[in-house]
Amino acid sequence: MKVSIITICYNSAETVEDTLRSVAAQNYSDIEYIVVDGASKDATLDIVGRYRSSVTTVISEKDRGIYDAMNKGVRSAHGDIVGILNSDDYFADDHVISDVVQVFRETDCDACYADLVYVNRYDKDKVVRRWIAGKYRSGLFLKGWMPPHPTFFVRKSVYDSFGLYDLSLRSAADYELMLRFIHKHHVKLAYLPRVITKMRTGGQSNVSLRNRIRANQEDRLAWKLNDLKPSWYTLTIKPLSKVFQYLR
After folding, report:
1. Under CATH, which number does the domain 3-247 receive?
2. What is the pLDDT of residues 52-91, one digit of tens each?
3. pTM
């Protein structure tokens, strides 16, 4: 099974080398690695150039934001399975992809997810928070559940059938896509119960309280876009818990 990994970056010279290095270190051989850069003005592309033996395709041009860049990557992908690893993130070890592929082979799933840890932006050895996703059960999205997007691997055929990231959403298009695939279309889902991705703090939806509130508003819109009715919990407790999590 060919695995396409897509890295989205823009002026990411500070962090992208860890991302590139973690992909290059994977012990699984059939990897297509696509880097989608938003026409960076710093040394990002120079750093990417050092890893051209591991990078299959580089796209560098202006885009309409991170989800537009993700869509470019998915459209360019030729793999059976697609995963997205942003330039603030990196794989936890060198056998992440081989473990993911094994899950797809053993379960014949359409999508797979795992656990994630947030690490301090300047000290990767300092774990800030652990996201233990747990096994999915039907209806969990109504209770505020979602899988960690940086651990989410999907068959390319699922994107072909159910669509890409919705560019009308500025910070919750990843949530909307997973809601659409899992909750609305009931793709067959598998859980890999271990940490496969490490994510630096400071993502787009968390960089300010205002962004966190806007992301919660977009979570509601994600349900509306899919003609789905969220639960009371999704509309109240989940947004409050995320705001309190930010304030901590």
Report:
1. 3.90.550.10
2. 999 999 999 999 999 999 999 999 999 999 999 999 999 9
3. 0.88
